[in-house]
Design a protein that fits this description.
The structure holds 2 protein chains of 2 kinds. By secondary structure, chain A is of the alpha+beta class. In chain A, about 25% of the residues lie in helices and about 30% in strands. Chain B is mostly helical. The chains are: A alpha+beta, B mainly alpha. Chains A and B meet through helix 1, helix 2, strand 3 and strand 5 of A and helix 1, helix 2, helix 4, strand 1 and helix 5 of B.
Chain lengths: ~300, ~160
């Protein structure tokens, strides 16, 4: 079988049982009203439903199918244990495994992942113990630079300013750019909103050291990028896509590229990129995005 | 909105919402519940502009909106993998075909969101390269190269003699 045919078959099988609920139209119209209302009463808090993670267990005795019409007159009773699926969304994988094991579900071993961002069935549904709970996982993030404290000093720079409310994401990575530029290293980490679901970040900072800074130099020379000046330093502002393609800031509505990024050449040997998650950018709006990225970039200094 | 518009929107939903939901699940790898949320959100945009777009290919507009939302959702989440929790197997062994399907879907989920969207539109929705490019708002060349690279990656990662 050709890979595209096998893939089409696998995709069709994967969603064959999915049907849009009949409530879709009502949901869309309700959202439409919510959308209109949100504009009128900006700032009103949204009510959030919190699901309790209680796990009552009960036994139900039912006669098995084999009990009907058995010739010798005996009947078999099959015991079905029902459990309520606990809420494991936004827990770590280890916590989720423990919670599922506590109600009698046994999981596959998995390593290299850390956060659960979704589950099926949903919390609160009752299932037989033989049923399957699928966990949707976020990859475990590396910690290449160790404990960075508040995270503001890494890869040879210090961040003098970060938006209020953000904390170090407790992960970091580094890689060599030997192949691409004949030397140099890149270091990166993120700053997140405390309590945000695993995998969500607000601000990501990359430090390009040595020959790696060539990338930022090249990006500064791209046609059509917006250049901002800070004293002697020059920076670009752009929306960067998944494949590294550049677009104008503020063009994220429904189309790519989507990650607002500011690139700055700090010294001969250091360049910095400050990137904002599309989520945060959507909340802030284009003007505030540019202002915030500039403010972070202005606070960047080479570490002593 | 006029009553006639409302009725036409209901017809549109009846005809298209299941297909849009399936597309969203394949592109962003989310649970059905999350995908419903995403599709509702996207359809709200369609509804908002419905009187204007209902005579002008609303299907393509809706799909573009849903696919773009699914790509953003997938990117926000860094969807990498799902695992399954269940009782130790007491069921019969699975057929190799089912395992291959699962493996293919797992490989699909590992691809970057946009590359995945290209494969979903091209091979599941069976859209032409041109229509795929229009739906994603990118060039024909991007569709060709993303499709080829996506298929190549899947082929490399699936160690299965059945695939060529």
């Amino acid at each position: 079988m050709k890979v595209e045919e096998a893939l089409a078959d696998a995709m069709a099988a994967n969603v064959a049982e999915v049907k849009a609920p009949p409530t879709m139209g009502a949901g869309v119209r309700r959202r439409h009203r919510a959308h209109v209302i949100r504009f009128r009463t900006a700032g009103a808090a949204l009510a959030t439903a919190v699901l309790a993670a209680g796990v009552p267990v009960y036994l139900a005795a039912t006669s098995g199918p084999e009990s009907a019409g058995v010739a010798n007159g005996t009947s078999t009773v099959r015991v079905v244990t029902k459990v309520t699926v606990p809420d494991v969304t936004n827990k770590t994988l280890a916590e989720a495994q423990a919670a599922l094991q506590a109600v009698g579900l046994v999981g596959e071993k998995a390593t290299g992942y850390e956060g659960v961002f979704g589950q099926e069935p949903k919390p609160g549904e009752e299932v037989e113990t033989g049923s399957t709970v699928r966990l949707f996982l976020v990859e475990k993030l590396p910690n290449a630079l160790g404990d960075l404290g508040d995270g503001r000093t890494f890869g040879g720079i210090t961040l003098g300013y970060l938006p209020e409310g953000l904390v170090w994401g407790k992960w970091s990575n580094k890689w060599s750019t030997e192949k691409a530029y004949g030397g140099g290293m890149v270091y990166t980490t993120t700053f997140d909103t405390p309590g945000a679901p695993s995998g969500h970040y607000d601000i990501q900072v990359y430090v390009h050291e040595g020959k790696a800074s060539t990338k930022v130099e090249n990006d500064l020379e791209r046609d059509g990028v917006e250049i901002v000046e800070f004293g002697d330093e020059r920076a670009y502002l752009a929306n960067v896509g998944e494949g590294g393609e550049f677009g104008q800031l503020g063009a994220q509505e429904g189309s790519e590229p989507a990650t607002p990024t500011l690139g700055l050449k700090l010294t001969d040997d250091l360049a910095v990129e400050v990137a904002m998650s599309p989520d945060r950018a959507e909340r802030l709006g284009t003007e505030a995005v540019a202002a915030e990225l500039k403010k972070i970039a202005e606070g960047v200094r080479a570490a002593k | 909105m006029k009553e006639e518009d409302e009725a036409a929107f209901d017809e549109f939903l009846a005809a298209r919402s299941t297909s849009l939901l399936r597309t969203a699940i394949l592109v962003c790898g989310a649970t059905q519940h999350d995908a419903e949320d995403l599709v509702q959100h996207a359809l709200e945009k369609v509804y908002r502009h419905w009187p204007r777009i209902r005579h002008d290919n609303p299907d393509a507009y809706a799909r573009r909106t849903v696919v773009n939302a699914a790509i953003s959702a997938a990117r926000r989440r860094k969807v990498i993998q799902e695992i399954t929790f269940s009782r130790p197997p007491e069921t019969e062994a699975r057929t190799p075909d089912l395992d291959l399907r699962d493996a293919l879907v797992a490989e699909l989920r590992k691809l970057p969101a946009r590359m995945r969207a290209v494969l979903v539109l091209r091979y599941w929705e069976d859209m032409s390269e041109h229509a795929t490019a229009q739906a994603l708002g990118c060039s024909l060349g991007t569709v060709k190269s993303q499709a080829a690279r996506g298929l190549a990656r899947i082929r490399t990662n699936i160690k299965e003699g059945a695939l060529v």
